[in-house]
Amino acid sequence: MEIQKPYTTAIEQQPITLEHKPYSPKLSDRLVDAGTARATLAASNESPNGTTTDNYAAKNQRRTVVQQHVTYWDRDNDNIIWPRDTYVGCRDFGWGVALSLFAAFVINVGLSYPTVPGILPDPFFRIYIDNLYKAKHGSDSMTYDNQGRFRPQQFEDIFAKYDRGEKGGLDAGDVWVFWKEQRMVFDLFGWTACALEWIATYLLIWPEDGIMKKDDVRAIYDGSIFYRRAEETKIKRSHTSPGLVAKAKKIL
After folding, report:
1. Are 88 and 75 in contact (CB under 8 A)?
2. Is the pLDDT of residue 245 over 70?
3. Is residue 214 a contact partner of residue 203, using CB atoms and an 8 Å limit?
4. With 80 as the cut, is the pLDDT of residue 240 above it?
5. Residue 104 burial (C-beta neighbours within 10 Å; 0-12, 13-18, 19+)
6. Quick check: pTM over 0.90?
7. Separation between Cα atoms, residue 229 and residue 233, nearest integer Å
8. CB atoms within 10 A of CB 131
């Protein structure tokens, strides 16, 4: 049952507002204060307390959600991510050498300078996690605010507006429509960054049915899915038959 409001979110005179309606809370919803940004929780209607598996949210109460998003790559906990950290992290969750190198190049070159503590660029393209909120770009969902908090309303809007058929997730066609409609005028960097982020999200989740589940996408925002994928890849590799490994080495 929807909560009755003294306003409307769509009008017939502007059909696009009918086609893509924003998230509107229901009385049965578990998410409260959707319009209030969370500093440390990636909250959704299905996961109002963020990621609770292994007490992930509880362990990250001293980091904003945008910092949690990249903590996986900070292997020595010094709040600095080197290009090698990015490469190794991508390899650990199953990406190949070429894709991991490309990711390390794009991510560190793109995010390093906005996060440096001074004026001069970092010659090693390191990313400084304390200043990561400064690397926010336009033409995306605006789920992170300008200080690195998580905005549940904007996250819920992604699926309320673009999950055609209420599948509980997004397929490639949904993401294409989302990307086109989120573009801001003359924001070439934002257009490109948003496209690359969603491609990376799809490659990471790699859904068998082609639908990226809502909670998997949410787990991208707080970074918890990276640890999960790395653990799954580790287990998968440990179960690989020695005979197959030897055969593959001969072929290569």
Report:
1. yes
2. no
3. no
4. no
5. buried
6. yes
7. 6
8. 16
Distances (CA, A) of 149 to 39, 141, 246: 4, 13, 48
At 243 the pLDDT is 54
What are 219's two structure tokens? 């787990």
Residue 150 in contact with residue 65, Cβ under 8 Å? yes
Q: Are 109 and 99 in contact (CB under 8 A)?
A: no
User: Pseudo-torsion of CA 87, 89, 95, 101, nearest 10°?
Assistant: -10
> How many C-beta atoms lie closer than 10 Å to residue 162's C-beta?
21
For the chain, first and last CA: distance in Å?
60
d(CA 78, CA 85): 12
Dihedral of CA atoms 140, 162, 46, 36 in degrees, nearest 10, equals 40
Residue 251 has pLDDT above 90, yes or no: no
Phi, psi of 34 (to 5 degrees): -60, -30
**Phi, psi (5° rounding) for residue 212?**
-80, 115
Side-chain-side CA neighbours of 192 within 13 Å: the count stands at 7
How confident is the model over 150-190, as pLDDT tens digits?
Answer: 999 999 999 999 999 999 999 999 999 999 999 999 999 99
pLDDT at res. 239:
81
Instruction: Extract the tokens encoding 174.
Output: 């949904």
Per DSSP, the chain holds a count of helices (H) and strands (E) of 11, 4
Rounded CA separation 252/241 (Å):
17
